[in-house]
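To make this tangible, we now present a fold written out as tokens:
***
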Amino acid sequence: TMAELLEVLAPSFHGDNAVKGKSLLAGRLDDKVFSDQINIFDDGLYPHGLGTAPFDAEGTPSQTTCLVEKGTLKNYLYDLYWAKRSGRKTTGNASRGSYKSPPGIGNNNYYMVGENTKSKDELIKSVSKGLFVHELIGVHTANPISGEFSLGATGLWIENGDIKYPVKGITISGNLIEILNQIGDIGNEVKFFGTTGAPAVLIEDIQISGT
């Protein structure tokens, strides 16, 4: 589920969107944008990844690009055109919908890892009162430009480090940038949703409504 939210943020790392002002992260290079627990990579060489390939759609060799290091924005992703226009080097992220389409910027294997990680059991044990979300509904409705979201969710209610009962029919809402600044602890197991991966995370403050 964190991977699904991370996927909403993916276009904000694209160099063309940064130039056009269509990115939540436009003009923020070398700024601290997220919790210092967060590292985010785009990796065209990730072992057995669905987005792994020796070259991108323009023939540029694939590489590993650090996008966020300890919460600080380090890079955007580029194809040849937008790299030249931005005075940067291509990151090997040219992508085509088909051979007839002109190349655009796309993610390869895009994922988050924690700076200091814990097991899922350790994360649950550390929660005095909270919700373990295991399914989000309507992620496609999240706004990738403003970062605002309001999503249906199901999960498990936790009290004093113990799972008490399942919950459904609830709504969680907030802003992606704010949420990614409120991450405390991060799990040690990255799970992929297609080509986007993330571990379980502990978010210290998020709006929950419903029964």
About this structure: The mean pLDDT is 95. Residues 32 and 210 are 34 Å apart (CA to CA).
